[in-house]
Write a structure and sequence with these properties.
The complex is a heterodimer. In chain A, 15% of the residues lie in helices and 40% in strands. By secondary structure, chain A is mainly beta. Chain A is globular and about 80 Å long. Chain B has one domain. Helices cover 56% and strands 13% of the residues of chain B. Chain B contains six helices and five strands; from the N terminus they run H-H-E-E-E-H-H-H-E-E-H. In chain B, helix 2 packs antiparallel against helix 6. The longest helix of chain B is centred in the first third of the chain and has 33 residues. The N terminus of chain B is likely disordered. Classes of the chains: A mainly beta, B alpha+beta. Chains A and B meet through loops of A and helix 3 of B.
């Protein structure tokens, strides 16, 4: 009895001690933090900064602590910077500038390397080293982004670029020989078999001259279907073709998907065939191209067009196979239906069953039914335009109209039957409901909510918002004007990328973040789930040539470096590793032609070496494993110190060498 | 009464049988231990014997080096050859390339271990007095491995190139073969790994087998 009583006493005491210790452990840190005031600290900071509860929610939605990674990545056009920008979301951190059409010294693009890619964009032998990039298109498999490639067009010069998402570098630029400019690109077919490039301002196809007086007969529009060879990672010019179109100023396009796969849809602006001439008393273009109440939505049977192209029913213009307009009409490749005038966006709903068009001067989005289009085509009996293209009656293909606001432009989609349309004149984004089965029949075809944006929104992008399975969650409003949003840096203002939370239903739309964008007018962007991207940390093997994506036979290995001479041809074989180039002396003579290969033999992530030869205009970025070969003529004698451009290591300054060029 | 309280003395044949059983057991235990030891040595080839982690701010997750019985490697990251990376860093302090270390030992390591395994097999089946000599290398092997490692660590740490970039900042030193060290901004942690434990387990088993064998022989000679 007695020992048991003692035991229970001890047990009780023990339990009390344990409880006390636990309490102490739990309470002590709180007590300490309370004493330091850190729990209320953020509240007082918020108070001092005048932040509302809404602001705090926005901060919590977007703040991405150091070391954590964004769930989404946005590929934004860089406008007339000619580049593409990669931005993490929702942090809106700029992750990468991808040099595309314009030389870029950080990436060593166009300063000794990348010349071959840039030369692909030469037009009739002329170097064109800027671009007006508009519409990035991520590669798709079964209508969904696959994270392998991204394409972008150059509106100014009618060119297309191919970017490999293993190293985020431009691999190819192709110039469209038919057209000076393009706007209906890039868009990809659901398995990236074709990259679509529609023209914009009508012109005589190719480089022919024709006076404006012959506009109707000699000026033309076009759409080009570039064949993409996934294995080679290149556009195959020899399997690509174009279709001649009336000179209606084709604008944006989109590829059909799922039920509408094999069809392509494009807007047009100038069915009036206006040729301007404000100075001669003609209506200026802005009025001339907007006189008619409707323009023509182009409905193109791509599968049938491929058959016509393969059957050889084409003419060759400047090396491009072109299906003539008459052949297109003859083979039922092209139809029209009226659309509200001055349309901008044509966007296919996730199911591929609806085509959403916005006319800038009409407050509605106009929704066409793909099924009705097919039924109307099957029924036959059409009127035609002056070029003989059949016109489907508007009423027979129309599904719905939703009044969303002023200046509707572009539409993107969510996973829940919501669609989003940018409103340029209202400076707002509208959320509306697709009232069809499979979308949001409970809300019908109706406007749900609008959120103001600052200011003058162009395109918008929702996460994977133009695929067969949109993610929703976030929307970015790509605004042309920022006016008062940022501290002034003079009269040239940045554009404003505004991040909007679209993750909640109904009228719960919240503006989360403003990101100033200084790369040029951004136009369109696409947003991909980050886990679909699988970029290399370093090049897979030492001696890698990013153009061939394989080990370069000319790559230099450690121990095989040196300078050799064959007549006046000098070959320099060099390796780079922290913190030295080998060799460190390159002694040549004026008049030599130099072929110089540098291989970065590093394997550590981020151990990039730069390489500069001042005066000779060489600036390279040699990433771990990469091998680059460049050539130049040693025209000017002198002493040129070459050095590493990246602060690669503590002894970075010492990573240099002398190129001495002895006078003849 | 007597028959109930006292046990019947065992017959001679019963005694013989129990002695035979225990003798047979004593006879085979050393063989079984030797074969298990041989198996452990076989398995140890597939595991690193020793590892080194270098930690520095610019290498999140650290640089891992693993030393197997006959080669060195980094961790599972296939893109980064971490031994090469460590080599690259070592050039700043003038340390020789790790690939040149213990070349002779590495070249004989695999035949040596296989030889030990074969030797253990021979001992297990022959168990003659002088044959036991063949088992001795397996007992000393894990300690010879560490000793050799210590020799090379010292050799590398003490023989730094005086013309290396950081030769004035880093004096010759002896890196620890076990535990923590500091060199420049790097913290190093050295440790013995699974392969070495397996080899040491094998050594203990061989030693036990030898003792049991000796014990049984002594017992037998006293009888």
């Amino acid at each position: 009895m007695i020992p048991q009583r003692f035991a229970s006493k001890f047990l009780l005491m023990g339990a009390v001690f344990v409880a006390a210790a636990t309490l102490a452990v739990v309470i002590a840190p709180r007590a300490v933090s309370n004493a330091q005031g850190s729990e209320t600290n953020w509240q007082s900071i918020a108070e001092q900064r005048g932040l509302t509860e809404e602001d705090l929610r926005a901060a919590v939605m977007t703040y991405t602590p150091s070391g954590t990674l964004d769930p989404y990545v946005m590929f934004a056009s860089g406008g007339h910077s000619g580049q593409m920008f990669v931005i993490g979301m929702p942090s809106m951190r700029l992750l990468r500038t991808i040099a595309v059409f314009t030389p870029e010294p950080w990436q060593g693009y166009g300063y000794g390397a990348g010349e071959e890619v840039l030369a692909g964009g030469d037009i009739n032998g002329r170097q064109v080293r800027w671009a007006d990039t508009h519409h990035p298109a991520l590669s798709e498999t079964n209508g969904d982004y696959d994270g392998q490639w991204v394409f972008i067009n150059d509106k100014a010069n009618g060119r297309i670029a191919v970017i490999d998402l293993r190293d985020f570098e431009t691999k190819q630029i192709v110039n469209n020989p038919l057209f000076l400019n393009d706007h209906g690109g890039t868009f990809v077919t659901p398995n990236t078999d074709y990259i679509i490039e529609g023209g914009q301002y009508a012109q005589p196809l190719g480089t022919d001259f024709a006076p404006l007086a012959e506009y109707e007969g000699s000026y033309r529009g076009m759409i080009t279907f570039w064949k993409f060879d996934r294995e080679a990672g290149r556009i195959d010019m020899n399997q690509s073709f174009a279709m001649e179109l009336p000179p209606y100023w084709q604008d944006l396009c989109d590829a059909g998907k799922l039920v509408s796969e094999g069809w392509v849809f494009c807007n047009s602006i100038n069915t009036e065939l206006a040729t301007g001439g404000i100075e001669a008393g003609n209506p200026p273009f802005e009025a001339g191209v907007s006189r008619n109440t409707t323009d023509f939505l182009h409905i193109i049977n791509l599968n049938a067009a491929i058959e016509v192209y393969k059957a050889g029913n084409t003419v060759e213009i400047e090396g491009m196979q072109v299906i003539p307009l008459a052949t297109a009409v003859e083979n039922d490749l092209l139809y029209y239906t009226p659309e509200p005038r001055s349309p901008h966006g044509v966007d296919i709903a996730p199911g591929g069953d609806f085509i959403v068009v916005s006319g800038k001067l009409d407050p509605h989005v106009t929704v066409y039914s793909f099924q009705k289009i097919m039924d109307t085509i099957a029924a036959g009996g059409f009127e035609t335009d002056q070029y003989g293209v059949p016109i489907l009656a508007y009423e027979s293909v129309l599904e719905a109209q939703v009044e969303v606001g002023l200046g509707p432009l572009h539409t993107q989609f969510g996973p829940d039957g919501y669609a989003y349309t940018s409103l340029f004149l209202d400076s707002a984004v509208a959320r509306w409901s697709i009232g069809a089965e499979g979308y949001r029949p409970q809300d019908g075809w109706s406007l749900i909510s609008k959120i103001p944006v600052q200011y003058n929104v162009g395109h918008i992008a929702t996460a994977e918002g133009d695929t067969v399975s949109p993610d929703g969650n976030f929307l970015v409003s790509l605004n042309k004007w920022s006016v008062d949003r940022f501290l002034s840096t003079g009269p040239l203002l940045p554009q404003n990328f505004q991040l909007i939370d679209i993750g909640q239903e109904g009228d719960n739309l919240q503006l989360l973040y403003d990101m100033p964008f200084t790369g040029g007018e951004p136009h369109y962007a696409q947003i991909i789930s980050a886990d679909k991207l699988n970029a290399w940390d370093v090049y897979p093997e030492v001696g890698w040539n990013p153009l061939t994506q394989s080990v370069d036979p000319n790559a230099v290995t450690q121990g095989s470096e040196g300078v050799t001479r064959d007549g006046s041809n000098v070959t320099v074989r060099m390796t780079a590793v922290r913190s030295h180039f080998t060799p460190e002396r390159v002694e040549i003579q004026a008049g030599d032609h130099v072929t110089w290969t540098i291989t970065n033999v590093e394997r550590a992530r981020d151990a990039t070496h730069g390489f500069a030869i001042p005066y000779y205009g060489i600036s390279l970025s040699i990433e771990p494993g990469e091998s680059i070969t460049f050539e130049f003529d040693a025209t000017e004698p002198g002493v040129f110190s070459y050095y590493c451009l990246e602060f690669c290591s503590a002894l970075h300054l010492e990573m240099m060498g002398y190129l001495t060029i002895q006078p003849q | 009464m007597t028959s109930q309280t006292m046990r019947q003395p065992k017959t001679l044949s019963e005694l013989d049988r129990s002695e035979n059983t225990s003798q047979r057991l004593l006879h085979w235990i050393p063989s079984a231990l030797l074969l298990i030891a041989a198996a452990l040595l076989v398995v140890s080839i597939a595991f690193p014997y020793w590892g080194l982690v270098l930690e520095a701010p610019q290498y999140p997750g650290g640089l891992q080096m693993r030393v197997f019985v006959n080669y060195m490697t980094g961790d599972e990251d296939p893109a980064l050859d971490e031994v090469r990376e460590i080599d690259g860093l070592n050039h700043y302090i003038g340390m020789k390339s790790l690939y040149e270390a213990a070349a002779f030992e590495r070249s004989i390591a695999l035949p040596g271990v296989i030889g030990m395994i074969v030797a253990l097999g021979i001992v297990a089946f022959l168990r003659r007095r002088w044959v036991w000599v063949l088992a001795l290398p397996a007992i000393v092997f894990p300690f010879v491995f560490l000793g050799d490692l210590a020799y090379w660590m010292n050799n590398y740490g003490q023989n730094l190139d005086p013309y290396a970039p950081l030769s004035s900042a880093i004096q010759p030193f002896t890196p620890p073969i076990l535990g923590e060290g500091v060199i420049g901004q790097f913290r190093t942690v050295a440790y013995v790994d699974a392969g070495w434990y397996l080899a040491t387990g094998a050594a203990v088993l061989v030693a036990a087998a030898l003792l049991i064998w000796l014990g049984s022989r002594i017992a037998a000679s006293r009888k």
